[in-house]
């Protein structure tokens, strides 16, 4: 059995690995030509429901529903979203719950440009990212409420308005196929 980190022979493997990983960050938005926006946008008034457990899905959908004009508490969303075991909820469950509340909701594979377009129109998006590594998935839902030249502004976990650098965000979002959920109120859909 060959080990990759056994002194001198591990250096070439380490260099090859670093080159491969650096190449993975290029074009992470699904479009190699993505250039981060030059301006700063922040959607005001998006509620934040801090969560440090497996309630990131219900917390996210409660926030965007409330912003879209369908006031929802975290407890209501938790009861309304069918949790699938201890690992949390699934994206389609969040869409179904939002539709049951009367909102227009859909999930799609978004690009970084579509994300910034939605934020520019005042529509926060729920995105699913993967913070796992080495094939271990650690999926997490968060609400994107803004962007800047440096990164996206997210309500995530226990932090409201966290700035996540573009490269880091796009890399973790890519692992979940750029999954996004759009929830809009009456008259906003489109």
If you had to describe this structure to a student in words, what would you say it looks like?
With 190 residues, this protein is α+β, with helices and mostly antiparallel strands. Helix content is 33%, strand content 22%. It is built from 6 helices and 7 strands. It has helices spanning 10-24, 56-67, 74-80, 91-100, 112-120, 166-174; strands spanning 41-42, 104-109, 125-130, 139-147, 151-156, 159-165, 179-184. Strands 1, 2, 3, 4, 5, 6 and 7 form a 7-stranded antiparallel beta sheet that branches. Helix 2 (56-67) runs parallel beside helix 4. The radius of gyration is 18 Å and the shape is globular. Residues 1-31 have low confidence and may be disordered.
Task: Enumerate the spans where pLDDT stays under 50 for 5 or more consecutive residues.
Answer: 1-31
What is the residue-averaged pLDDT?
Answer: 83
The biggest beta sheet reads:
7 strands, antiparallel
- Rg on CA atoms, Å: 18 Å
In angstroms, what separates the terminal alpha carbons? Answer: 56 Å
Backbone shape? globular
What proportion of the residues form beta strands (DSSP E)?
15-25%
Total count of helical runs of at least 4 residues: 6
Number of strand segments: 7
> What's the helical proportion of residues?
25-40%
The assigned structural class equals: alpha+beta
Order of helices and strands: HEHHHEHEEEEHE
What topology does this entry show?
Layout: H1 10-24, E1 41-42, H2 56-67, H3 74-80, H4 91-100, E2 104-109, H5 112-120, E3 125-130, E4 139-147, E5 151-156, E6 159-165, H6 166-174, E7 179-184
Antiparallel strand pairs: 1-4, 2-7, 3-4, 3-7, 4-5, 5-6
Helix pairs in contact: 2-3, 2-4
